[in-house]
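TICKET: design request
STATUS: open
ATTACHED STRUCTURE:
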């Protein structure tokens, strides 16, 4: 009986470790941007947020190929940012600029800093170190990543 239980646990563990196709494993929340500021908000669709995520991965991969890798601190030392994306929860904000450009701002909150559900609140801000919080913007109209703030 114990042998059978150990065998099942090992299989479950190995199955969970072999999920290389999964880009990110953490939760996300999509907001309509706060319309009190200079931007007019909209709620990004799932396809728009997926497109923004893919463009970010492409952007980071291009930087790595051109020897401009963006590194972040990890327990293992400095590692490429794209290898750490799975450890961040996402907050997506849809904005329309004054010029009419549709933008998705993605805020990344480290899983160790976001708390249970605090990170899901629109007014959430982190008092933690830079490793806990960073953001990037994606222009839907221009299909471009910009304003990476680590």
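STATUS: resolved
RESOLUTION: sequence designed for all positions
ATTACHED SEQUENCE:
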């Amino acid at each position: 009986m114990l042998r059978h239980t150990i065998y099942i646990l090992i299989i479950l563990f190995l199955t969970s470790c072999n999920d290389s196709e999964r880009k990110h494993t953490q939760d996300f929340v999509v907001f309509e941007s706060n319309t009190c500021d200079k931007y007019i908000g909209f709620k990004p669709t799932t396809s728009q947020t997926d497109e923004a995520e893919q463009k970010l991965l492409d952007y980071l991969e291009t930087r790595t190929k051109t020897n401009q890798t963006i590194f972040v601190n990890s327990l293992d030392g400095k590692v490429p940012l794209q290898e750490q994306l799975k450890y961040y929860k996402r907050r997506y904000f849809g904005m329309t600029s004054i010029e009419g450009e549709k933008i998705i701002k993605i805020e990344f909150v480290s899983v160790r800093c976001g708390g249970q559900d605090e990170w899901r609140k629109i007014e959430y801000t982190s008092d933690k170190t830079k490793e806990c919080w960073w953001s990037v913007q994606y222009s839907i109209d221009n299909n471009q990543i910009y304003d990476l703030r680590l």
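CLOSING REMARK: The first helix runs from residue 2 to 17. The chain is about 25% helix and 30% strand.
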